[in-house]
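[step 3/7] inverse_fold.run input=structure_tokens len=78
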């Protein structure tokens, strides 16, 4: 079963996507409001196999967050 992390600053879209992927049989490990929150959660040791995120987010956008993931967690698909 694929584990997923979701990052989007729009809470209703994020929760809707979480519900959709859970109904499809995937596990949502955690959700984040922005890229920095996602990075903070990834640094705790909980590591999803896949990250779905918005490009336009406050604090750290999707581009900056993707760069960080590729440099620090190369086995996670973004």
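[step 3/7] decode complete -> sequence:
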């Amino acid at each position: 079963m694929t584990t997923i992390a979701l990052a989007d600053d729009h809470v209703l879209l994020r929760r809707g996507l979480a519900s959709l992927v859970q109904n499809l049989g995937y596990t949502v490990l955690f959700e984040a409001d922005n890229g920095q929150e996602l990075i903070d959660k990834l640094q705790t040791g909980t590591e999803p196999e896949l990250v779905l995120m918005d490009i336009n987010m406050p604090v750290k956008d999707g581009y900056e967050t993707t760069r960080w993931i590729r440099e620090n967690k190369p086995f996670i698909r973004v």
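[step 4/7] annotate
Residues 6 and 17 are 8 Å apart (CA to CA).
The mean pLDDT is 93.
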